[in-house]
Amino acid sequence: MQIFIRLIQAITSLIVIYLLALRLRKSKVLKEEHSLILARIVTDLSLPAIVFSNLAGKQITSNDLIPALVMFIVEMCCIILSWLLCALLKMPRDTTGPIVFCSAFGSSTFLGYAVIIEMYPTVSQAMTEAVLISEIGVGYPIFILGPILAAYFGSKKTNFKDNITVSLAFFRSPLFFAIFVGILWTPLGLPTADNNLFKPLFDICDILGHALTPLAIISAGLMFKIPNIKQISLALIIVIFIKLLLKPVLLGFCADALGFEKLWKDILIILGAMPPAVLGAVFLRRYGGNASLASTILLIATCVSCITILGVFFFVG
Asked: At what angle are helices 278-286 and 93-104 packed, to 10 degrees?
């Protein structure tokens, strides 16, 4: 019951900020076009900051990365499956993009951490593993693949060469340099936050990183449009089936097949069952994709996940 209450609290926080964005738009304090500005702040400032601060100075063993690798592989399978389903159903590109994003990437940081803390309040290893799975298995793929996929689905170009050129723009972005510098930071023996000279740098990154969730949710909320349920029902069914049901079940089976301890298995299932990540809508908005559809699917799937998370964990966990 405590897990359920904590989950409801976390989801309520997300929805309240989302509704606040709608209210600000209705009162004309913020406008829909402001979502692009907020999306750029998230992708060009907050994201690079949080990526750098989570990479620089971290020592990670190869064994700790196995659950994160499993999460990554299952995530790639979800991308391929959702993309194939959209192709078979002959869905247009501006519909395929939101479905792929919402089917693969989950809100493991915003909601996942809150649930893990409630489930294992005295087990420090649980949160350590949750961070590794979330940041490496979910965070880095969406940080790296997110802009590339969003550029592809947001591009109006149909030429393969032009699409690749647009997608590779990521490798000139602040986010790419944050990943590159963060990975090299420890091998080069550079100072961490314990160093008085570099502490302000890490403090600034933490401050900017904390702004990511509210800015991303507000940006997604400003894109929201009242949906035609009949028009989005198929997209919503695909996302709910792949992201909220199939993905956590696959993670549970993989954990059993690889002989993971119960703690690792439970964390994988919980993080895999999280609703779609807000960053999907943000990336699509940043690169001209159908962020409005992604935002609508995100809100509905988040509400549905309140039931599916507990159901999946009960049967597979």
From this structure: 150
In the prediction, which pLDDT does 156 show?
A: 57
Question: Exposed, middle or buried by CB within 10 Å (0-12, 13-18, 19+), for 106?
Answer: buried
**Cβ atoms < 10 Å from Cβ of 249:** 16
Residue range 165-176, pLDDT digits in tens? 655 666 777 877
| Residue 259 zone, left/alpha/beta (φ > 0; ψ -120 to 50; rest) | left
pLDDT of residue 237: 93
What is the chain's alpha carbon radius of gyration, rounded to the nearest angstrom? 19
DSSP assignment string, 73-142: HHHHHHHHHHHHHHHHTT--HHHHHHHHHHHH-B-IIIIIHHHHHHH-TT-HHHHHHHHHIIIIIIIHHH
Residue found under tokens 């703690």: 263
What letter does residue 18 receive in the DSSP assignment? H
How many Cα atoms within 13 Å fall on the side-chain side of residue 275?
Answer: 26
5 φ, ψ (degrees, to nearest 5): -65, -45
C-alpha 162/C-alpha 212 separation (Å) is 31
Rounded distance between C-alpha atoms, residue 96 and residue 55, angstroms = 32
